[in-house]
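Q: What would this chain look like folded?
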Amino acid sequence: SAPFTAHASDVSVAVLGTRFNIRERRNIVVVSLLSGKVRVTSGRHNGGSVVLTPGEELTAAEAAARTGRIDRLTNEPQAWTTHQIKANGMTVADIIAAYEDTYGHPIVLGDASMASRRIDGTLSLATSENVIYTLANILNADIIRNGDTLFLRPK
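A: My prediction, written as structure tokens:
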């Protein structure tokens, strides 16, 4: 049978019996391979194809693409299917980016040093309130709303 092909922007992924994840955010496409194999074709990868093996990912950003090993996942690639972030040393900045990509509301940190703080554990993305409340508790911060913008100010 013909392979199933998934598309994200100008990146095509031919599925060749596998478990994989494709994420497109902020004009960056990331293909993570968990098992099996996929062939990835991208206009950002000189128009050529790359076959990924388990534990590899391809990141296509702007005019370039690169492949690499997934040595340590900071968030399980398939966690979005259960509306979760499964953080493993994930930075607050990365969690905020996931929140903004999911809900479209910006978060501003009252103390920029909070952005580099690393978090381990599972955060629910089921509702925007779950994420904000959990982050505020972890950071010991107050939540201030101003229109669609959320501010996390240290207590």
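The CA atoms of residues 40 and 150 lie 38 Å apart.
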